[in-house]
Amino acid sequence: MRIMLIGAPGAGKGTQAKILEKSYNAVQIATGDILRKATEAGTELGLKAKSFMDLGHLVTDDLMIKLIREKFTQPGFSQSWIMDGFPRTVAQAEAFGELLDELNLKLDCVIEVDVERPLLIERITGRRVCRNCQAPYHIKFNPPKVENTCDYCGGHDIYQRDDDSEEVVTNRLKVYDLQTSPLIEYYKLKNLLHKLDGNLPVEEVTTKIVNLVNEAR
Ligand code: AMP
Question: Are residues 130 and 158 in contact, defined by beta-carbon separation less than 8 angstroms?
Answer without folding.
Answer: yes
